[in-house]
Amino acid sequence: MNQSIGTIQVVSGIVGLLLIAVVVRGVSKRFKLPFSVILVLAGIGLSLLATSYPQLLPLRRNLELSPVLILYVFLPSLIFESAFNLDARELRENLWPVLILAAPGLLLSTLVIGLMICAATPMRLPEALLLGSILSATDPVAVIAVFRRLGAPIRLRVLVEGESLFNDATSLIVARLILAVVAAGSAASVSRGAAAKAILDFAVIFAGGLLVGWLLGVVTGYVLGRVQDNFIEITLTTVLAYLSFIVAENVLHVSGIMATIAAGLAIGGWRRIKVSPGVRTYLNHLWEYLAFIANALIFLLVGLRVDLRALWTTRSLLMWTVLALLISRAIVIYGLTPLIQRFPGSRPISKAYQTVIYWGGLRGAVALAVVLSLPPFEQKETFVAVVMGAVLFTLLVNGLTIEPLVRRLGLHRPLLSDRLEGLEGDYSANQEALRRLPELLGGGLFLGAVATRLQQDIEKRAASLRVEIETLHQRELNDDDQQRSLLYLRGLSEERALFIRLQDKGQLSERAFRRLIATLDSRIDVL
To answer: How many CA atoms within 13 Å lie on the side-chain side of 97?
Structure first.
């Protein structure tokens, strides 16, 4: 009976948090504030309220932010959603900067943070490096939301989100390896053989996770291509997100995060081919919703978990940690990016992009999961307080100022081709609606007065779009080369849409479709 009451209390607490998340979502949209930041503040407010008036929030003690909850419930859905919706072609084009910032960049960040904390505080080097590895993983949920709302360039979103995806896995692996050093007592007690084994373990865990996830994604894609049931297709993708993580992490002892990333990229790249046309849009919305639920609960629970007295007690260490975090991030971004651009096939990354990537390196769920999962040791509570404080700092300071920074750097406007494509797509949809209106009216489904009013509204909208398109042409398309390139882009986009329709109708084989789309993508990249 007591167990049933406990379950009811937990479920009631989750329902209550979701209701709060809905209210916060409305407030954030109304005042155009980062959703995750307001969630954390709401969680802190609830925590203070529960401390002062425990009878008002009796369920708080049943809602703990445990590492198992983050790693096995929230993290797979967040990672799979990001990988599933990531532009695979753009990721391939920017793979060098993403991988170098996520692996060597994270190791460099770990070293800089560890050395600074060791030099400025009484903390020993192994523990300082462990703290550095935990805090080097980025989690730009609030930043990506700002990018999407403002229409920031796709490449910038891929660089920020791709680095975050891959360095989450790197951070978890490195933290576990450094834990062995901490358990040994000192860095000096680790032999060269042990160091070489640690490097080999890192490579095996990282690459092994990728291989496991990719294989499971391929198998799932094969099954998806042979079923025609919407519920089976949707369920298989959900199972894949969690199964890849569990099999990699618990069965094969490789990186579960890398496995989920590989599985998400595999299915995300195939969704135009393997998934039924009617399921594609639904899948996008489903994973966006699951990510919304995970983020809402994580950041509310973070706010509830924040202990302001512990933050005040560790304020000196926290100040040095935040300073080290900012300096290490600057060294990684501004130091490695110029070197990355020398790699063959790498495109230049502008200073504006570098600045946004630097300031958009927020910390979040992975750092919290790692620090909460640490085995008991003397400084664990200090670690938890410092990581909580650092996560809170980046959310409140970086998260609230990233939008003004993006606007100031002029990265809030989509490319001209993207703006024109959106306007012309909207205009074409309005024209199609006008064309179909007499047919619908003839079927006797609508009253004449309703149809007339609807026709007037559509005509007014179409005229407004037409004026906007012509104005954009006159103001920004003054060069013949620009107009020629834009015309080619439109033609290639139409060609791409035609290939997709043919493939959906079964009139184009998968192999031919892939070859044609790859050719089109390369031509678009040239333009």
So the answer is: 30
* Global confidence as pTM: 0.79
**Residue 378 and residue 88 in contact, taking contact as beta carbons nearer than 8 Å:** no
- Give the integer Cα–Cα distance in Å for 22 and 39: 10
Going residue by residue through the chain, which has 527 residues, state the pLDDT in tens, using 9 for 90 and above.
455 556 777 777 788 888 988 998 888 888 877 788 888 888 888 888 777 766 656 555 556 667 778 888 888 988 898 888 887 777 888 888 888 888 889 999 999 999 999 999 988 888 899 999 999 988 877 788 778 777 778 888 888 888 888 888 888 888 888 887 776 655 555 555 666 777 787 888 888 999 999 999 989 988 887 887 778 888 888 999 999 999 999 899 888 889 999 999 888 876 556 676 667 777 878 888 888 898 888 888 888 878 788 888 888 999 999 999 999 999 999 999 888 877 776 778 889 899 999 998 888 878 888 888 787 777 888 888 899 899 889 988 988 888 889 888 887 666 665 666 666 667 666 776 777 777 666 655 556 666 677 777 777 887 887 777 666 666 555 666 666 766 676 677 677 767 777 766 666 776 677 677 767 766 766 66
For 447, phi then psi, to 5°, come to -75, 150
Q: Are 304 and 63 in contact (CB under 8 A)?
A: yes
- The DSSP H or E segment spanning 509 is none
Q: H/E element holding 56?
A: none
Task: Compute how many other C-beta atoms are within 10 angstroms of the C-beta atom of residue 291.
Answer: 20
Token pair 């920004």: residue: 476
Q: Where are the alpha helices (DSSP H) in 151-276?
A: 154-184, 192-224, 230-246, 256-270
Among 396, 161, 141, 479, smallest CA distance to 293 is for 141
Instruction: Classify residue 43 by burial, with Cβ atoms within 10 Å: 0-12, 13-18, 19+.
Output: buried
Angle at 126 between CA 121 and CA 130, to 5 degrees: 90
Look at the alpha carbons of 260, 263, 266, 270 in this order and tell me if their dihedral is positive or negative.
negative
Helix (H, G, I), strand (E, B) or coil at 228: coil
Please state, in angstroms and rounded to a whole number, the distance separating the CA atoms of residues 131 and 317: 11
- Angle subtended at Cα 112 by Cα 109 and Cα 114, rounded to the nearest 5 degrees: 105
Buried b (16+ CB within 10 A) or exposed e, 185-217: eeeeebeeeeeeebeebbeebbebbbbbbbbbb
Nearest to 504 by CA among 336, 276, 208, 304: 276
**Who's near 178: CB < 8 A, 6+ residues apart?**
110, 126, 129, 130, 133
Look up residue 253 and give its two tokens.
Answer: 């002892």
CA dihedral 319, 324, 326, 332 (to 10 degrees): -170
In 3D, which of 102, 109, 178 has the Cα closest to residue 375? Answer: 178
Cβ-contact 141, 339 below 8 angstroms: no
